[in-house]
Amino acid sequence: MKLAAIDIGSNAVRCQISSALTQETNVIFKRIEYIRYAIRFGEDVFNTGYISDHKIQKFVKLLHALQLLIDVHDVNHFMICATSAMRNSKNAPEILQLVEERLGMKIDVIDGVSEAELINKVIVNFLDERNYLHIDVGGGSTEFNIYVNREKVASRSFEQGSIRHMHGNDSLELWNSMRTWIEENARKYHLSRAIGTGGNINKIYDMAGKTPGKPIFRKQIEEVVQMVSAMTMEERITKLLLNPDRADVILPAAEIYLSAMKWAHLESMMVPNVGLKDGMIHALYEQFNPGRFVISGIN
After folding, report:
1. Is the four-CA dihedral 85, 88, 94, 97 of positive or negative sign?
2. CB neighbourhood size of 77 (10 A)
């Protein structure tokens, strides 16, 4: 079975196609195609409230290209989800209708709770007996989840993300709300480690030279931040080889990760390099294979 997920975020659109491979009683999801395009809906929405006509036309072309890719891969089932920017865009209904009329593709605009639930489907496979704070920083929203004995016991979504923070579309009140929620739950559940998801923490993890499966320490994240902040935007692109849409948001995102770790008094973080798209693949598999217990591997 081939499954595809299209994640329409505030910074980028991601498309992943995976094969579901059965190994005795387990199912392994093997990634066979992955495409990321920096659409930057958040820049429009968080500043004007609308997605521009120019980006709408690009978006329709992009979805058409992904539709063709899904078709040539003979994908059995696919899912399209949009998050914070589309949730907040005043012209989102018109965009969704346009896509459905032109391409016959239905986009589900999901809230922060649903987003966290989808990510939860893959995160639990990377947890052990420790008590974890899961931090997922997107372009427009940040989701926090707390796990005890691999069970989620608390969850909260905040309209705070790397693009919002970069453009100053946040407030001291919002930061204080995040801090209060984390501090209260850190004390209540005796958290011992963070687990981070999102493109920016994945990139920081790589830049720190970490071995997959090993934790990154808060001090190491701070060292990467110090190195990046000392460079101009051009140097980040030419010397660190960061994409332009990563070079400007990596520091605002890092501030959210580091703040959350400090508030929870956590010194280390696991970075499994999975996210919403992987959770969507899981959800699709479960939808068409009801009742089957899935242990996933991400290749």
Report:
1. positive
2. 16
Q: What is the pLDDT of residues 5-31, one digit of tens each?
A: 999 999 999 999 999 998 877 889 999
- Strand ordering across the sheet containing 77-82: 26-37, 13-23, 2-8, 77-82, 108-109
Tokens coding 139: 């372009």
Q: Decide if 155 contacts 110 (C-beta within 8 A).
A: no
Strand pairing class (77-82; 108-109): parallel
Q: At 295, is the pLDDT very low, low, confident or very high (cuts 50, 70, 90)?
A: very low
Which residues, at least 6 apart from 25, have a Cβ–Cβ distance to it below 8 Å?
A: 293
Beta strands in 189-267 (DSSP E): 193-197, 216-217
Please give the radius of gyration of the chain, using alpha carbons only, rounded to the nearest integer: 19
Half-sphere exposure of 33 (CA within 13 A, CB side): 16
Cα separation, 63 vs 32, whole angstroms: 18
DSSP run (H or E) holding 32? strand 26-37
Q: Which residues pair with 66 in a beta bridge?
A: none
Reported as a single tens digit per residue, the pLDDT across 267-288 is: 999 999 999 999 999 999 999 8
The structure tokens 């692109």 sit at 237
User: What integer pLDDT is reported at residue 299 of this predicted model?
Assistant: 42
CA distance 128 to 123: 11
Whole-model pTM? 0.89
List the beta strands (DSSP E) in 44-112.
Answer: 77-82, 108-109
Say if residues 20 and 3 touch (Cβ distance below 8 Å).
yes
